[in-house]
Amino acid sequence: MSSESSLFGHRWLPLLLVAPLMLLIVLFFYVPVFQAFYWSFFLEQPFGGGSEFVGLQNFRRVLTDPEFWAATGRTVVFMLTASSLAVIVPLMLAIAADRKIGLSYAARNILVWPKGIAGASIGVVFAFIFNPFVGLMAPLNTLFPGLWNPGIDGTDAFVTLVAAHVWSGIPFNFVILLAGLRSIPPTMYQAAAMDGAGPWRRIFDVQLPLIMPQLFLTFVLEFTESITSVFALIDTITGGGPGGSTSLLVYKIYVDGFRGFDLSGASTQTAILMVFVLLLAACQFVFLGRRLNYER
Amino acid sequence: MVENARSINIAAGILLAIGILYIVGPLYLTLSTASQSYEYMLQNGLAWVPGTELFANMGKVINDTRIPIQMLNSMIVAFSNALATCALSFLSAYAIVYFRIRWAGVVFALILATIMLPLDIRVITTYQVASNIFSPLNAVLDVTGLNDLIAGAFGAPVHLELSVLNTHFGLIAPLVAHGTGTFLFRQFFMTLPKDLFKAARMDGAGPIRFLFDILLPLARPSVASLFVLTFLSGWTQYLWPLVGASTPDMQTAVVGLARLVPDADGQVPDFPMIMAGAVLVSLVPLTMIALLQRFLVQGLVLSEK
């Protein structure tokens, strides 16, 4: 039989099948993405008050605003610290859970639980647990006054955000990395053991090199994830404070757009953030992806 | 293989114990504080031992707040999101894989690109589109000059307006506009043997028959995985329901929970009541994870490949 017959030949049916999803994607993905870039060249009045072409003026305004650069800096710091931890912690847990020991069955079950708990819910919980007056650190605070107060100290607030982010990020990264470890053929371990590599040595010589694809993927996804999903945590734990020290870009865009009604400024920052996210993904593919060998 | 792996097994055990503690600790403290009274919390801070007030605190949440109706909203949003994502992604992946169409690659790329920029990044302009879903159509009519023709012929240009803000549809639709499901089903269809299709054709099955009688039964585990995954994602959304719903009765439970914490500093908030709210709001997704964990794990792994 020819390859022709291995596919249906209808003309209108496939169009009909993809139409509903494509319609939603065009309406709620491509139009908003386009509009963010379009608006960044216009001065938009809130509540449909008309718009005026201003060229690059919005970009000039945003790029000379020290608040924007501060928020960008904090976003990069958060991205590097929180997402590294959110990959390294599940990685260590996955390597541990891959061994046949008593706790690994329980761990495989329990470590998935955070997937069901919203970022905002765990934010509310962490805000309470790290509350300086009634939370975990309250007894220490009475001994050493001023030791821990996320309401005043920006670093404390930042640490709380990172802890909550790593907590919510464990399930996905753990499952992906564990699946990678489990797909390593046992003969690899046996061969390494014959060559005299003990279990510790095999972590670095067999396991890590062979799960590079999964590790790479979790990093790529985690970078974007840490930039965007942090919104729920900021809004429930710190509210951007104290003194703006946890106001990351995604939060600043929300505040500028929905509280300050600065649609042009918010759109311009959205456009910049989108370009940043896309460049980040592209860089990772070019610099990291090239050195990976996906063949087993 | 017999070898001495004692040191690494002990280290792994300790590591896993710490990991489990890290996950379970906050959950335990939530539950134990939710079961204490406000006065107890004021005196002792967070509760290390469970008390007897759990149901009283939950009763406060159910009677004094909008959480019950908001949980209904969450249920509607999460369920519809899961159902619509499964159905629409299945159909579009089916069209892309099983039909001889030249634009299949382009459409798949367009769908897949949605994974790169999450909804939280494009929330400002998505909100604008949702406030009038005909605005792109109006803009197209204006730009192409069609509206001038219409205005010339009928006296007025076309300007349609329909806001989906503060509706269930508006809360759900932007979540469905996502490519993970199509990607997942496409991968699954590619793993099926080509002979399956040929055999079905020989037996005279048309596209609809092939879809319902052969593909759908085979894809049941994949559908279940995607369903669990998108249900949880719909339930745990925060930024979009926060801006997409303006009245408390339309908000989802997670947003309602965050609103239980008073904004102003000063008096210590009623943390036991808030923690009871957190328990209530997390009950449905956690039950789902407990019952359908197999599908969740499978879904996470599939969505990666």
TrEMBL record, chain A:
- Where is it mostly found? membrane
What GO terms describe the biological role, i.e. biological process, of this protein? transmembrane transport
Q: Which domain of life is it from?
A: Bacteria
Cite the entry's keywords alphabetically: Cell inner membrane, Cell membrane, Membrane, Transmembrane, Transmembrane helix, Transport
InterPro entries documented for this protein: MetI-like (IPR000515), MetI-like_sf (IPR035906), UgpAE/MalFG_permease (IPR050809)
What family does this belong to? Answer: Belongs to the binding-protein-dependent transport system permease family.
Note the subunit structure: The complex is composed of two ATP-binding proteins (UgpC), two transmembrane proteins (UgpA and UgpE) and a solute-binding protein (UgpB).
Q: What is this protein called?
A: sn-glycerol-3-phosphate transport system permease protein UgpA
UniProtKB/TrEMBL annotation, chain B:
> Which family is this protein grouped under?
Belongs to the binding-protein-dependent transport system permease family.
Q: Which CDD domains match?
A: TM_PBP2
- One of its Pfam families is BPD_transp_1
Which GO BP terms sit in this record? transmembrane transport
Membrane protein topology class:
Multi-pass membrane protein
Q: Ion transport as a keyword? A: no
Q: Which InterPro entries match?
A: MetI-like, MetI-like_sf
Q: Which organism is it from?
A: Aliirhizobium smilacinae
Q: Does the keyword Membrane apply?
A: yes
The regions listed as transmembrane in this protein's record are: 12-31, 76-97, 103-121, 168-189, 210-232, 271-292
Question: What does the function comment of this entry state?
Answer: Part of the ABC transporter complex UgpBAEC involved in sn-glycerol-3-phosphate (G3P) import. Probably responsible for the translocation of the substrate across the membrane.
Compartments (UniProt record): Cell inner membrane; Cell membrane
GO CC annotation: plasma membrane
Record PROSITE patterns: ABC_TM1
Q: What is this protein called?
A: sn-glycerol-3-phosphate transport system permease protein UgpE
Q: Tell me where in this chain the ABC transmembrane type-1 domain is found.
A: 71-292
Quaternary form?
A: The complex is composed of two ATP-binding proteins (UgpC), two transmembrane proteins (UgpA and UgpE) and a solute-binding protein (UgpB).
Keywords of this entry: Cell inner membrane, Cell membrane, Membrane, Transmembrane, Transmembrane helix, Transport
